[in-house]
Amino acid sequence: MFVHTLPLEVREKISAGEVIESPVDCVKELVENALDANSSRVDVEILKGGKRYISVKDNGTGIHKEDMERVIQRWSTSKIKDVSDLMHIKSFGFRGEALHSIATVSRMIIKSRFFQDDTGVRMEVEGGKVLDKREIGMQTGTCVEVYDLFYNLPVRLKFLKKEDTERNRIIKLLKEYALSRWDVHFTLHSNGRKIFDLYPSEDRKERVQMLFRQKFEDRKITKESVTVSVYTSLQSLRGEIYIFVNSRPVQNRNLIEYIRKAVGYKKICVCYIDLPSYMVDVNVHPKKREVRIYKENLIKEMIREIFKKEVWYPFVLAQDTKTYNPTPEIIGIIDSTLILARIGDYIYFFDQHLLSESMTYENTRDASASCRASLKAGERISKEEALKLVQAWMNLENREVCPHGRPLYYKLYLGDIYKSLDRR
Predict the structure, then answer these.
(1) CB-hemisphere CA count at 13 Å for 236?
(2) Which of 14, 33, 3 is nearest to 85 (CA)?
(3) Three-class SS of residue 301?
(4) Most exposed residue of 76, 169, 333, 388, measured as fewest CB within 10 angstroms of its CB?
């Protein structure tokens, strides 16, 4: 047995609150559990923006048979034991509320096989009550399936956003954890369609560049046991800032504004702050999205040093831009439907209708109207018009799927093509 109920004095110290308010909250808690189980692969699948179905499957250590029913009880966790552990939290989760909160507002199936066991356990839960539990054959790891979120809370169900909005929130969340854990293989499928498939990377920079499909400049500085690593895009698009504290994705308005003033509003910036666990308090927000950092002024000082012009723009930048051209090159148009383009080291196949529809949607926020008003498959366009579509795609808020969940592109890595042709 590894899961236990937290004692009262620990519960009183924990910043508790409403954990599950939307599908993205559910996915967040399940993905964090998967990562805390030392998984090297996490597969996420959703239907109807997560409102109908959510599945998070991992290849981690699994749940011990004796702990299966305990994991859905409130305040049950294997991650901390006493108050002193709250000052040295290294796991994503620690409150023992996640599975309990999800189980009480959904129909849930948990399948798990502990790494030292020969068989797994399947447990069916509805409204927080165990309906069925039996042994099954399965690989080591855990799969949690959540059906009909908030089926027993119709009022909360009404407050959920449209399917595409909920789906986009989940896509953004998975990107954050993919940036956080570059060594983990992440996949995401929505309504049966692949949104992304991110293989493990060699380092943070590779994952950052893989995710955003462009080159980044990186800088690092260390002072007083604190290391700040910053990755900033060379290409000016739409500004996005991501902050990670000890690999935990967090929101810190002060640091976000501080970085934004340094890099401007048209750069993508990913900032990793690594510091001793006793210097950060993650127990200040019910959803663990905000943290309190001790010596925050020191971190601001380090960021200021990193972004000094003489440090941030060395001659190597000019060399990088010569070897990498982020401007899309239109190769051709197939069947008046597919735009074939080269961007960097990848060949992209774009659906011209879906690109046009996504552009229109981001201006109107009306999926039906954007579909009717968009360029159609089979409609002839010039290479110049195709180039404008692809350039517009690079500035879209959601560059992965159309308003109806269909993928906007398929891409091939040129290196793989050369390798297949035995040209290295």
Answers:
(1) 4
(2) 14
(3) helix
(4) 388
**Mean per-residue pLDDT of the chain:** 84
Is the per-residue pLDDT at 38 higher than 60?
yes
How far is Cα of residue 389 from the mean position of the Cα atoms in its chain?
26
Q: Are 297 and 340 within 8 A, CB to CB?
A: no
CA distance 371 to 373: 6
Q: What span, in angstroms and rounded, lies between the C-alpha atoms of 168 and 49?
A: 8
Question: Quick one: CA dihedral 364, 367, 370, 374, positive or negative?
Answer: positive
Compute and round to an integer the Cα radius of gyration of the chain: 23
| Average pLDDT, integer, range 234-249 | 85
Q: How many residues does the chain have?
A: 424
Q: How far apart are CA 159 and CA 157, in angstroms?
A: 5
Neighbours of 158 (CB within 10 A): 8
82-114 tens-digit pLDDT:
444 445 555 565 445 678 888 888 999 999 999
Mean pLDDT value of segment 194-214 = 91
Please report, for residues 36, 164, 167, 371, 393, the alpha-carbon distance to residue 361 in angstroms, rounded to integers and kept in the order given: 37, 11, 15, 8, 12
The pLDDT of residue 77: 62
What stretch of H or E contains 384?
Answer: helix 383-393
Rounded to 5 degrees, φ, ψ at 230 are -125, 135
- pLDDT, tens digit (0-9, with 9 covering 90-100), for 361-411: 988 888 788 888 899 999 999 999 999 999 999 888 778 788 887 889 888
Tokens coding 159:
């407050």
**CA 98, CA 19: separation in Å to the nearest integer?**
7
The pTM score is 0.72
